[in-house]
Design brief:
Largest sheet: 6 strands, antiparallel, barrel
Shape: globular
Family: Belongs to the protein kinase superfamily. CMGC Ser/Thr protein kinase family. GSK-3 subfamily.
Keywords: ATP-binding, Kinase, Nucleotide-binding, Nucleus, Serine/threonine-protein kinase, Transferase
Subcellular location: Nucleus
Number of helices: 12
Order of helices and strands: HEEEEHEEHHEEEEHHHHHHHH
Pfam families: Pkinase (PF00069)
Radius of gyration: 21 Å
CATH architecture of the largest domain: Orthogonal Bundle
Binding site for ATP: 69
Length: 318
C-alpha cells in the first residue's frame, strides 16, 4: 500500500478523533474470544502517534478506560499485528480487549484495536522513579518472561524500546505495540531496517536479513542499561555512528564483521574499545550478576548472545 496514502488517511483520522473528542460513539466489536458485542465509548485524548497509527485514551459508557489504537490498512491484506495479538496471552504482554473496522476508501479501511490502559511507559518510569537495582531486576525479569513467551512461539517483537514497555502502579511490566512483530521462519530473509536506531542490534545495523529473536535480547538490554545511565548507551546520529558507539565499548573482530557482510569501506576502519565494558556497566549498576547478564545480552555475535530461557535460569533474577 502507498505509504503516502496511509499517512494521509491517518492524518484525517487524527483530525476526526480530535474534533469528536468527548462525543459518545458506538461500535460493533469482535472480542478476542470470538464473540461479538457493542462498545459505547468517547475519546478522551490522543496519547501516542507513530508513522502508521495512533493511540487514543477512551472511556466507555460504563466508566472503564482503555487505549484504542487506530491504523489504516489495505483491504487485500490481513493485519499481522492483529493476527499475532489474537494468538498470544501472557501477563507481561499488553492484552487486546476487542477490535473493529470501519470503511475508509476503495483501497483500504481503518482497524481499531482496544487494549487495557496503562498510563506509564518505561520511558516515563525511568524519569519519575528511583533507580533501585532490585527494582531493575524485578522489571527486567518480567520483560524477559514476556519475550520468552513470544520467542518460544517464534514471534520476534522487533521494536523493543522504552516507550513499548508499560509499567502499572503495582510495578507490573507489559510489552506493547506489536506493529513490527513477526513470526520468524528459519533461513527466511526479513527487513533488517527494524527497531528504533539506538536499540537496533549490530546484525540489523550491518544489514543482515536472516536474523533471529536475539535482536530483541539486544534491544531489551540496551533499554535496561538506560534505566541507570539516563541516556541510550549507543546513541548515534545514523547507522554508522551507532555502530561506532557500539565498537567503542565492545570489542569486535574483523572476521565477525565480514561474516555479516558489512560494507568494505567500514571494514577497513578499525575501532578499538576506549573503555572496559564490564567496568562501565559495574560503575552504573554495582551488581555483578546483573552486569554479567547484560554483557551476555550485548554480545555482538548473535550466535553467542544469551537467549531468554538462559537469562531466566540465572539466579540474579530470582
Amino acid at each position: 500500500m502507498n505509504d503516502n496514502l496511509c499517512v494521509s488517511m491517518l492524518k484525517l483520522a487524527i483530525k476526526e478523533a480530535k474534533s469528536t473528542a468527548g462525543i459518545q460513539k458506538i461500535a460493533q466489536v469482535c472480542n478476542r474470544d470470538g464473540s461479538t458485542g457493542e462498545l459505547s465509548y468517547k475519546i478522551i485524548e490522543i496519547i501516542g502517534r507513530g508513522t502508521f497509527g495512533f493511540v487514543s485514551k477512551i472511556e466507555t459508557a460504563a466508566g472503564s478506560v482503555y487505549a484504542l489504537k487506530t491504523v489504516y490498512e489495505n483491504n487485500k491484506y490481513n493485519n499481522r499485528e492483529l493476527d499475532i495479538l489474537l494468538k498470544i496471552d501472557h501477563p507481561n504482554i499488553i492484552r487486546l480487549h476487542s477490535y473493529f473496522f470501519s470503511h475508509a476508501t476503495v483501497e483500504g479501511h481503518y482497524l481499531y484495536m482496544c487494549f487495557e490502559y496503562i498510563h506509564t511507559s518505561f520511558q516515563d518510569f525511568v524519569i519519575d522513579k528511583a533507580r533501585d537495582v532490585c527494582l531493575v531486576k524485578h522489571l527486567y525479569r518480567q520483560a524477559v518472561e514476556g519475550l520468552n513467551y513470544l520467542h518460544l512461539k517464534g514471534i520476534c517483537h522487533r521494536d523493543i524500546k522504552p516507550s513499548n514497555l508499560l509499567v502499572d502502579q503495582n510495578m507490573n511490566l507489559k510489552i506493547c505495540d506489536f506493529g513490527s512483530a513477526k513470526l520468524l521462519r528459519r533461513n527466511e530473509s526479513n527487513n533488517h531496517y527494524i527497531c528504533t536506531r539506538y536499540y537496533r542490534s549490530p546484525e540489523n545495523l550491518m544489514g543482515h536479513a536472516r536474523y533471529s529473536t536475539k535482536v530483541d535480547i539486544w534491544a531489551l538490554a540496551t533499554v535496561f542499561c538506560e534505566f541507570r545511565t539516563d541516556f541510550p548507551i549507543f546513541k548515534g546520529k545514523n547507522t554508522i555512528d551507532v555502530l561506532e558507539k557500539i565498537f567503542e565499548k565492545i570489542k569486535v573482530s574483523q572476521k565477525l564483521l565480514k561474516k555479516y557482510g558489512y560494507k568494505r569501506r567500514y571494514l577497513e576502519k578499525r575501532i578499538e574499545p576506549t573503555t572496559n565494558f564490564n567496568e562501565y556497566l559495574m560503575g552504573h549498576f554495582h551488581d555483578k550478576p546483573l552486569v554479567d547478564v547484560l554483557v551476555s545480552s550485548l554480545e555482538i555475535d548473535p550466535k553467542r548472545r544469551i537467549d531468554t530461557e538462559a537469562i531466566l535460569q540465572r539466579k540474579m533474577l530470582e
